[in-house]
Amino acid sequence: MASDLPAWIEIHGHPLYAAQDAPQRRTERRSAGIFEEFLKAQRQDPRTEWEMVVELDGRMIGTVGLRNPRSGTGVLGWGFHPDHWGSGYALEATEALMQFARADLKLIRLEAWIYASNQASQALALKLGLHLEATLRSRVRWGDGWMNDCIYARVYED
């Protein structure tokens, strides 16, 4: 919902959260643009993206998302306010989204693309049953240098 934008910007602008994101993505304008794209995607038919808001006491504390569910594969993502890191909310919400992807969308493969520096998200991916499949070297521009991108995946056998 559009009313979630201030909380979204607060989460993505938090210094600890921003440190886990590429420097060029750390502006309020860029964050608001990403949020608007998510809102537009929710109205598409057929849908190609799902973004689930996680609230605590009526306030957004994070989101989990599923993108590009084509040809049986979807890409997972998550982002939470640092005050709630390690609380289990990301695990619980992403597990629910994965169940939806498997049961309702009939996806057989789920991926998460995670920056190599984001060890907490890599640990979460492992808890979710995803496995490291590849490390793409120097894939993401990171300030004056480059960052590796790690692809985690889970394949459901039929």
Identify the overall geometry: globular
Number of discrete helical segments? 5
Please, what is the CATH homologous superfamily?
A: Gcn5-related N-acetyltransferase (GNAT)
What is the fold named in CATH at topology level? Aminopeptidase
Number of strands: 6
What is the helix content?
A: 25-40%
What is the end-to-end distance? 36 Å
User: Main sheet, how many strands, which sense, barrel?
Assistant: 6 strands, mixed
Low-confidence stretches: none
For the biggest β-sheet, the strand order reads 1-2-3-4-6-5
On the 0 to 100 scale, the average pLDDT is: 88
Assembly status: single chain
What would you say this structure looks like, in words?
By secondary structure, the protein is an alpha+beta fold. The chain has one domain: Aminopeptidase (3-Layer(aba) Sandwich). It has five helices and six strands. A six-stranded mixed beta sheet has the order 1-2-3-4-6-5, with helices on both faces. α1 packs across α3. The longest helix has 15 residues. It is globular and about 40 Å long. The N and C termini lie far apart (36 Å).
